[in-house]
Amino acid sequence: MDSPFGLLAELTYRCPLACAYCSNPLNMADYTDELTTDEWRRVLAEARDLGVLQCHLSGGEPLLRRDLVEIVATAYDLGLYTNLVTSALGLSRQKAEQLRAAGLDHVQVSIQADEPAVSDRIAGTPSFHRKIEAMGVVKELGWPLTVNVVLHRQNIDRVAAVLELAEEVGADRLELANTQYYGWAWRNRDALLPSRAQLEAAEVVVRAARERLRDRMDVIYVIPDYYSRFPKPCMGGWAARQLTVTPNGDVLPCPAAQSLPLPRASVRADPLARIWAEAPVMTAFRGTDWMPDPCRSCDRRELDFGGCRCQAFQLTGDAARTDPVCHLSPDHALVAEAVRAANAETRPTDLLLVPRPHRA
Amino acid sequence: MDPLTTATTARSRVAVTGSDRPRLARHVRLSFCRTRQRHILQLPETVVVLHGSGAHILELCDGRRTVAEIVAELGTRYQQVPDDEVRRFLTRLVARRCVELPQSAENADG
Question: DSSP class of residue A158?
């Protein structure tokens, strides 16, 4: 067992946006009893001692935590590299200056499309102009800026303009992340899953842009796994490199894992080191011993780790099965059928999106 | 679910030369991890664990010293400092955007 490198600190699931592709849990009411400032201080210190070097402050919208500046300052003092993952709503100049002074290292701002009306529609709230303004503040204060855009059926055709926008705002990195189908995104899968023609067109644009921008902007493209032959190497292996702490103190290998039928582990009950080493939620799928065939005898088992446990559970009801995305999975028809439907000529590109609620 | 990268970026293959004046990229922090007892580089989405003399090389990458000067300075600490290995190490880190070669130090002398 190695030490984790990264902590995803989900400070709150409250959010001013209502994105239909949100992968956060559906049962938001379970997460309203949020950790206090002192509890987060302890969690960060325990994480550092465990070997964590990076702290992603996320949510929900982390800026809704009134103690965000104190949490950043604690992480900075512990030597953690801090990354704020934000919608940028609430990132006023004053707040940004406070965060800068507290030692925040990096800011990632989401935007939903290149065009105000489309972006606001997908976000479920007027937000485009405030995001652009906040990106300007991020650059002005000297932070490296990552722009994150979740791609799906309703915005992937605009990827060229999205790249232009990222260039205009001076992004150092652009993450083009194809939607992953957890939480609300799972509910909205029919409306979000792009067609093969859409993906192929987008990939041509992305490849050309990478070539053109390679000295100025890092373009990361998170593959649409439904269209892959092999599954993604989810989290670099279950409980291998990363851990997540949810707003109420639950500890998970990744945020989607709250959906799995595993016993809870909480920082309110146990030290992080013991949870990492021993809790069933961490050990259940660590390594390769848990694997069924075809993974068990597959040459790729140390490359993709059998794919995503949460996706296997979501699609088959059994988290220990091979990720159905894999063409070798006995359950692959489940994915193939969704892909077939997404490519039916009768499927429109603007199906109604069901917005995620803002709060519990 | 995986918020991290799956596909990474194609990168220009700029080979570092003796006259370059490398420096750590602005968004990169060099520090020491007590748990692992290793020097590390911290970046927005990843961590690079350094082995051997890597940290000593990077500590000298201040944007003022040339690679040749860095190699010479390392020579006072280590018995053998193969300059091609230092250049290869830095070239890899330039490709990963951990190290920058400021414009003033173009690869003029190849």
Answer: G
* Amino acid B13: pLDDT: 60
Query: Is the separation of the CB atoms in A233 and A304 below 8 Å?
Result: yes
For A328, the 3-state DSSP assignment is: coil
Q: A44 near A74, Cβ under 8 Å?
A: yes
pLDDT tens string A265-311: 999 999 999 999 999 999 999 999 999 999 999 999 999 999 999 99
Distances (CA, A) of B40 to A83, A244, B4, B5, B54: 17, 22, 19, 20, 9
Would you say the ipTM is above 0.90? no
Task: Check CB contact of B38 with chain A, cutoff 8 Å.
Answer: no
User: Cα(A23)–Cα(B2) distance, rounded to whole angstroms?
Assistant: 11
Distance in angstroms (rounded) separating the CA atoms of residues A168 and A37: 37
What does the block give as tokens for A17?
């946006």
Q: Give tens-digit pLDDT for A18-71.
A: 999 999 988 888 999 999 999 999 999 999 999 999 999 999 999 999 999 999
Contact A83, A97 (CB under 8 A): no
Subunit contact B11:A214, Cβ cutoff 8 A: yes
Nearest Cβ partner for A219 among B9, B12, B31:
B9
Tokens of B92: 């890899």
**Cβ–Cβ of B1/A310 closer than 8 Å?**
yes
Q: Which of A273, A225, A349 is nearest to A45 (CA)?
A: A273
Residues 6+ apart with CB under 8 A from B73: B60, B65
Angle at B21 between CA B17 and CA B25, to 5 degrees: 110
Are the C-beta atoms of A241 and B46 separated by less than 8 Å? no
Question: What number is the average pLDDT over the span A322-329?
Answer: 97
Predicted model pTM: 0.92
How many other CB atoms sit within 10 Å of the CB of residue A323?
29
**A145-151 sheet: strands from edge to edge:** A218-222, A173-178, A145-151, A106-110, A81-86, A54-59, A6-12, A242-245, A251-252
Contact list in A for residue B2 (CB cut-off 8 A) is 180, 222, 232-236, 254, 308
For chain A, give the percent of residues with pLDDT over 90: 91
Cβ-Cβ contacts under 8 Å, A147 against chain B? none
Host H or E run for residue B56: helix B54-59
